[in-house]
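Thread title: Can someone regenerate the structure for this chain?

I was given the following input by a collaborator and told the matching structure tokens would be attached. They weren't. Posting the sequence so someone can regenerate them.
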Amino acid sequence: MIRAVLTGTGSALPARRVSNAELAEQVDTSDEWIVERTGIRFRHIAGEDETTATLARDAATAAIAAAGLTAGDIDLIVLATATPDNTFPATATKVQAMLGIDDCVAFDVAAVCSGFLYAVQVADSMIRAGAHRRALVIGAETFSRILDWEDRTTCVLFGDGAGAIVLEARDSVDDVADAGARGILATRLHADGRHNGLLYVDGGPSTTGTVGKLRMKGREVFRHAVVNLAAVMEEALQATGLPTDAVDWVVPHQANARILDATARKLSLPSEKVVVTVDQHANTSAASVPLALDQAVRDGRILPGHLVVLEAMGGGFTWGAAIIRM
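Best answer:
Regenerated them for you:
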């Protein structure tokens, strides 16, 4: 059977790295306050010449190289973002042009922090259907552009960045319990629009005609995140028939260290199996899962054959999980 096999990862961060102490010079906050509540110590902020598209391009270039391919080998680009360069065209098409790809399918997916998981399932489905052979799946954000820098409860939480993976169509064994069953084994996605008002941006082309700023009710988001992330991970694992203790690594959405800890406890997962980068990057929305995945691959923690769970929840609410054998 055909599966979408992950063959390369890449990531990119803006040049400017901002510590909590530096942020405290502009915002009524402190390093202690931020670390205690979120676990965040640093974030990267995009400069004037850095955009969602340029960060996506750099992450994509790294992922393509890691896969041993050239840009011309890619026939599908799915880019997840809530902060596109323009209302249209799709940022994916700008990345396509930057990479020098003359013709391929390229489009954006908008599901906020869950966007990368949505993009993975879309690309996986298109590959398994036989429509495409090599897909570039990207999560890229410049959330600093939509933050209210006078709201200390939200502006300290987010950063900018991009992550990317290459998925390739490969023949794989049917039995997912077989160590040879590489690729995406299962994905599960959800959405519940009743909670739009808990995490949203207060603007848009058809409402205010402005970009707007991010607004969030943190306590309510936290409560939903812990429940939803644990449930969707269990659901995805059940679809494979594999037990929780078969998981080598969990790469979660990097929103808040307390959410990561609470989710791990709910699933009885040892903290050593959870990839954590929120302290260095803060919440990079759709970029956070592929950014953390790439870091764990490049530092030698995630290895070929490992069973990896990706999971995220974002505004909407949207949430999802993917089970991948590397």
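The longest strand covers residues 160-171.
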